[in-house]
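### Sample
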Amino acid sequence: MHFYGFECENRGDGRVPWLAVQLEAAEAAAAAVCRFHRWSERSVIGHREWQPGKVDPLGFTMDSMRARIAERLAPPRTYRVRPGDSLSSIAAELLGSLSRWPEIARLNGLADADVLRVGQVLKIPQR
């Protein structure tokens, strides 16, 4: 099995929370490395899992990070377009934010986001 990790900046004392954008970036980067090498999320490890005496990361668990990475590595879900749907309404419903519609467009190779057909099956990105 292959393992890897990368350095992230934080005070490291567990009192200063990790920003959501930091966790999202770590998740995305780790998933990209796993996808490239065809590894699973189990290849992602933290300092304290590998090096005796290390206490980091503090403020989140590697199990929770690996769960996030596993979700990102999962195959895309699908959605069948219904009357009145738009990419932004689908993004709001399934991804929690209408601003994520460009991800759906990219994943499906849609040149014109305004052209959806009822019954069309779209791939939906994870989380």
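The chain has five helices and two strands. This sample (Peptidoglycan-binding protein) is used throughout the tutorial notebook.
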